[in-house]
Design goal:
By secondary structure, the protein is of the alpha/beta class. The protein has one domain: Glycogen Phosphorylase B (Rossmann fold), CATH 3.40.50.2000. It is built from 7 helices and 6 strands. A 6-stranded parallel sheet has the order 3-2-1-4-5-6, with helices on both faces. The mean pLDDT is about 90.
Length: about 200
């Protein structure tokens, strides 16, 4: 599988020592999906500071959003969303120094592959700890990680987001995620070797 990842990334001009970051757009429910346009805004900040190749990852349901994000981001991305097996995706994620994603399967796959993870969660800070969207239970494990959550639930939600579309997660700003990315990378790569 590592040869697959190397071939895919090399085909897009990524050399072995160049930084790559992954973006995971999908989630099993719409309320866990951070808006696509915020990923686009985040990409501009990431590219200015670190200049990595961006890899879009996800399952079959993420192919369309991945294609839309690729169209927005043009030459700066490698889009494998919906185009790999689970093992192939893990091999690609192993090459990524950081993954920014929703609370979804690729988040856990990235952690298992050894990528640092910034999770964008719909679960409000201080919400029910044992809820099925709570990062207390379902955060990425075993790697440097940060979870960005809404500071509070959006009415009428209280302990967790009750909606079936993006709602509480809209309380997570691009600036909050960007700050989490910078802090996590500073802690993980203090010599700034992640960048240019």
């Amino acid at each position: 599988m590592q040869s697959f990842a190397a071939a895919v990334l090399a085909r897009h001009g990524l050399k072995g020592d160049e930084p790559a970051f992954a973006l995971g757009l999908g989630a099993n429910t719409a309320k866990k999906r951070w808006p696509l346009e915020r990923f686009v805004e985040l990409r501009l900040l990431v590219l200015q500071e670190y200049n990595p190749k961006l890899v879009i990852v996800g399952g079959p349901d993420d192919r369309d959003p991945g294609d839309r994000l690729e169209a927005e981001l043009s030459h700066s991305v490698i889009n494998v969303a919906g185009r790999t097996t689970l093992r192939q995706a893990a091999a690609v994620l192993r090459r990524c120094r950081l993954t920014v994603c929703n609370d979804t399967g690729p988040m856990h796959l990235a952690a298992a592959a050894g990528s640092a993870v910034v999770e964008v969660s719909c679960h409000p800070r201080g919400g029910a700890a044992k809820h099925d969207t709570s990062p207390v239970v379902y955060r990425p494990w075993g790697v440097p990680q940060a979870v960005v959550q809404p500071e509070q639930a959006c009415a009428p939600c209280q302990d967790a987001c009750k909606f079936n579309q993006p709602h509480c997660i809209l309380g997570v700003s691009v600036e909050q995620v960007w700050n989490a990315v910078r802090l996590l990378l500073a802690a993980t790569y203090p010599d700034h070797s992640v960048g240019r």
